[in-house]
Amino acid sequence: MQILRSKLPRVGTTIFTTMSGLATEYKAVNLGQGFPDFPMNGKLVEAVTKAMQQDFNQYAPMPGWLPLREALAEKAASLYGASLHPDTEITITPGGTYAIYTALTTILSPGDEVIVLEPAYDSYVPNIEVNGAIPVLVPLNGHDFSVNWPAVHAAVSPRTKAIILNSPHNPTGAVLGESDITELRKLISRQDIFIISDEVYEHLIFDGKVHHSMLRYPDLLERSFVCFSFGKVYHCTGWKLGYCIAPAALTKEFRKVHQFNCFSCHTPSQVGITEFLKDREEYLQLGVFLQEKRDRFIELMRHTGFSLRTSSGSYFICAGYEKISDERDSDFAIRLTREAGVATIPVSAFYQDGADQKLLRFCFAKKNETLEQAVERLASL
């Protein structure tokens, strides 16, 4: 019998699967996984239903429904001043995570190195390793999860092929600022490095901060794969639909991988979203909507023993529990689910070495009653 040699020998069941299973088993309030428990806009449901009824049910073109790509080009021009060609620079994908994987697969060869800032979304490192490349891990600054640029510069080697950026950041809610763009420019001036920019939370940004998308900066965009998610914008994470923006030469190679993997995404959803994108307020007001939930959660958590870190974007906020326990974060998260009935994600899950900073990640993209129920349970600790 032939023995299978695993391409990901260190990968097992993720903490997200474990915590969701425990949440179900113990009927816990699930503030672990990053998805809303409130309904999406019914008008979008109607638009997709209408598309199905009008028989938009066969394969869309491999790059995506052209009217959707045209609408996205208009959106990028309006928000970021980007001049994009919808036919050659935008590709519709089955989710943002797929877009990131495909971008990495497009550029990586065995032995290449990719700089990954930790804590990091859990797909990045496996995506790199499955392509035979090497993740070079650089910790973010511990006090505010800002980028430690001296450490990034020190991590560059002749084999460095790319850097992955994520803003707003999962799991911490940190966002890039103008100084980060300055440092990024210094980095690429030293060496020809690709940028994988994970911007799935582009509209979930708070406190009047600016989203420094790579689309704003032509010199950065020319070497970037910029990845987005409709699921995070329109509260439909289960649709698994996103897109990747890259210069034409990079998109050409991206699509070579894409066409032999997914090839085409769900057509009715693309047609429905095209219509729904005309309502700009639906995504422009998203930051205000989620900031209200963040602020509500922060206010509720004042009555607990948790100490909240700053979150300037995304669905998430991290909290320390040093006043409650000295357990490892993974052990405490499991006990919290079993005994208090609240599921979270230990931040050590976002480090390859399991670094334990005694932090848990909470998702506040929930109904107010869900947040209230969860914090009532947490306050009893």
TrEMBL record:
Transmembrane portions of the chain: none
Keyword Hydrolase recorded: no
Gene Ontology MF, one: transaminase activity
Cofactor: pyridoxal 5'-phosphate
Domain of life: Bacteria
Pfam families xrefs: Aminotran_1_2
Signal sequence coordinates: none
Domain Aminotransferase class I/classII large: start-end pairs: 28-378
Gene3D superfamilies on file: Aspartate Aminotransferase, domain 1, Type I PLP-dependent aspartate aminotransferase-like (Major domain)
Keywords: Aminotransferase, Pyridoxal phosphate, Transferase
Classification via InterPro entries: Aminotransferase_I/II_large (IPR004839), Kynurenine-oxoglutarate_AT (IPR051326), PyrdxlP-dep_Trfase (IPR015424), PyrdxlP-dep_Trfase_major (IPR015421), PyrdxlP-dep_Trfase_small (IPR015422)
SUPFAM superfamilies in alphabetical order: PLP-dependent transferases
Protein name per the record: Methionine aminotransferase
Source species: Flavihumibacter stibioxidans
